[in-house]
Each structure stands twice: as structure tokens, then as C-alpha cells.
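SAMPLE LOG
Freezer: B-3
Tube label: C17
Construct: single chain, 163 aa
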Amino acid sequence: MTAGGTPAVGGPALALVHTDLSMLVTALWFEIDHGDGSAASGFFTADAELTFSRRTFRGTDEINGVYGDRAARGPRVSRHLMSNFHVLRHETDLVEAVSALVLYAQDGEPPIPTTVPVLVADVFDRFVRAGEPDGEARRWLIASRRIENRFLMPGDVLAVPTE
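STRUCTURE (predicted):
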């Protein structure tokens, strides 16, 4: 607490939120890498927006479609490496954060002969706490995710539509 009796910026509450949300993000990337994204929409609100470059998908049906289309192309090896998770805005039921994403990916079966990432990006997430305060357990979900490419390997085709 500050001298005026208001909560200090940061502190234990923010540390818990930071931990909860970074765990949520890494669980989503794990699902995409190890489960073909078939359960990825469960990490999003029903009306969430997921944006890759200039292409936006709205709602869990469209998000399911993105990962369903990717899985229908056949085997793919991917590893989404998330770091530098930073909370930009923190309110009781809303958090905005940014993280860095490094992606190694290629179609086929492992092991894949690759040595460089196909993508380095900033990921901007807006999280909301879902559920009723007196009802179901409240949990964080992604309401909006925007992936902004910073580096792409020339000639690589990403597994999700970007245009």
C-alpha cells in the first residue's frame, strides 16, 4: 500500500496475475504445438478476435476453423517459444499484455532439418476474467490476440492465413 492507502503498483496481486496469464499463454502454445490447436478456442472468449498480420478471425467457430484447416494439411512440427511477457495494463477483470514469440515450424514429421525460426513476432493479448462472481469459477480468457510479425524467413509460408 502507498502512504495514501491505495494499492501499490505491481506487488503480489500483479505478480499472481502475471503468473496466471503467462501460464495461460504457454498452455495455449503447448496445445497448438502438441494438439494441432484442436482445443485452442477454449482459451478464448466466445466473441474473441484473433489477428495474424492483416487477417482477423472472430469468435470461437472461426478460430476453430483456422486450426482445423491447418491440421487438415497434414503433419506439421512447430514450437512456439514465448518470452518477455509484460503486463501493459492491469485492472480487476481486464489485462493487456505483450510477449515475444519465436516460431520454429515446418510441415512434415519430426525430426525436421531446420536451424532458424520462421517467425519472430510481438503478441498483443487482451485478457478478461470470465464467469460470474458468485457462479462458475472465474478464469482468464483471451478476448483479443494480435500477432505482429517482426521477422519472417523469406519464402516461408505460415500455417495460418495472414492476408
